[in-house]
Structure prediction request, 639 residues.
Amino acid sequence: MVESFSFLQSNTDTTSFTYDIIVVGGGHAGCEAAAAAANLGSRILLITMDMAKFAQMSCNPAIGGIAKGQIVREIDAMGGYTGIVTDKSIMQFRMLNRSKGPAMWSPRAQCDRTLFSIEWRKVLESIPNLFFWQDVVTQLIVEGGKAVGVRTMLGIDYYAKAIILTAGTFLGGLIHVGRNQLQGGRLGELSSYGITEQLVGFGFEIGRMKTGTPARLDGRTINFSIMQEQKGDNPPAKFSFLPEIIPPVEQRSCYITYTSPQVHDVLRTGFDDSPLFTGAIKGIGPRYCPSIEDKLRTFVDKDRHQLFIEPEGFFTSEYYINGFSSSLSLDVQLRALRKVKGLENVEIFRPGYAIEYDFSQPTQLKATLETKLISGLYFAGQVNGTTGYEEAAAQGLMAGINAHLKINNKPDFILQRNQAYIGVLIDDLITKGVDEPYRMFTSRAEYRLLLRQDNADVRLTHLSYALGLASRERYDFVQRKKEIIDTLLKHIKSASVQPEDINVYLEDMGTSPISQTRKLIDLLVRPQVDIRGLVASFSKLQNYIYKLEIPVSDEILECVEVIAKYEGYIEREQELANKIQRLEDIKISQSFDYSALKSLSTEARQKLSKIRPVTVGQASRIAGVSPADISVLLVFIGR
Prediction:
């Protein structure tokens, strides 16, 4: 290995082995991290095991969903690429939770798995100062408490001012199918060894987590005709706010079917060999995405569970069976699948399996995702105990930004909980830690009416533009959008409508007609009235929009409607956020001696000493720190 490195050195300019930042791993976190840091101006090396699998969708070929869709729109608003790549590989788009309030609306897209990786590779290779190396990193190079490089399986040392570790499920990855075990970060791929052992030696708290995936089905052997078809939205929307990004028009359907008592009986025959029940799996599994055997054990009263049959691509017959993740033996999986309605004759391409992997407790991170123990070392993605492509991509984006800022001696970039779901995600991780794979939900956000999917660009693009990440064109587009929204809102609040102009529409919508002149806003706030119908029915509003001489998209109209209907609630939530923000503005010295503060509870002293919150606001969210403890802190700080 040493001779190989010497050969490379003798034939290559050694300066090529030095970069500003090295990103380890080419998954969703690694891709966003590398792209963000490179676009900001750093010279990046992205090291990955397989350059044909950038941002590989290891499990479900879908992006978005409840709260996750909001994260993807925030990534896009910040100048990241997950939304753009999704739009270019969409097979089906749906806006979830339309029957609920706008704080709950969440975009979700089925993607062509292969096309998704191809589009990501196009993006990455279009960035001039982003370079690649296909290899396995086996060791971090740390000198004087600072990460300065990595060593690969080929024995090559690469050096940088910062390292971003985005190892996904590959650190000590162990795959389970029944009683069979094999090493791998994904089925058919290598695990990574060496880094975990190093981190333990440096004093990191390392644990094991578990996730799983279902079998992949041969669509040629599925009877779709007896399943419930689930079509996408018509017309489909998209993730990216950029007007030039247009998703494919063609959409593929998903299908719904169910398990049954007969399916459950077959599954139970495999429990004796299940690694979940034999103790072979030591890692902590995800509560919110359980395996089918977990469901049978947890929900013993249910005689059926919903399954979604989802296409993997435009040009393949491979299908994903959402809701049937399993680590049971191949024989049991196949027999159980063939008891499912529509899958009586199904063949599979590969079995479902569980995978265990190493993760680092995220309370060991700063809000920038830099580790507290080693300067210049950043963690992003599943290595921090999260689950999901979207959570990983968001962490990668923030780690890439902050690594670039650090090596250029610029202030940290931290999103607050009232600014973005990304802020909620990172604050939850570093403040509360994880005892199971972390998944984002709208319920985790205190200010979800402020953090809607429709206004992510208004919330975040100006911040990203100030960093130098979002382009001037994107910034100008958002400013123009804000102007249009404000203009339309003012007009709707001031314009009046006569009964004869609108009563037919109101009656058709099942709401009371008006008997005298009313303001448009008084009608729009009615739950039965939507802005598109109002525009279509009231010619004066149509003419006003036409005279603006700019395109007013459905997205803009939707923003106007949400603000109009929920303005009072939004204002109250903003007032609350402003009050809570005062605690975020009170800084705590990182050398603060909590042990000397005997007025604090014992648990609070222990937790505060371990996590080292940066602000009083963060301290208030630590489990075990009571309001009384916060009062003591405020008194001691003099506030």
Notes: The longest strand covers residues 157-165.
